[in-house]
Amino acid sequence: MIENNNQTSQQSQFIEGMKEYFRGVRAEWGKITWPEKHQIISETFMVIVIIFCFTVAVYLIDIIYKGLFGLIK
After folding, report:
1. Which domain holds residue 11?
2. Percent of the chain at pLDDT exceeding 90
3. Rounded to two decimals, what is the model's pTM?
């Protein structure tokens, strides 16, 4: 009987904790400032350009190393 009351108490504490958590989430959600469409597009473009540059750099380094290791025989 005591175990059942303790388990019920833990469940109600868990439920109250979850309710409090989601109340906090809802309060913080209203404080978010979302970026404008122009900012998202320009930053996405910059990320794509940087990824492309690094890909080309790694490819060129790979070609150089293949050439250098091809000389060693």
Report:
1. 1-33
2. 73
3. 0.56
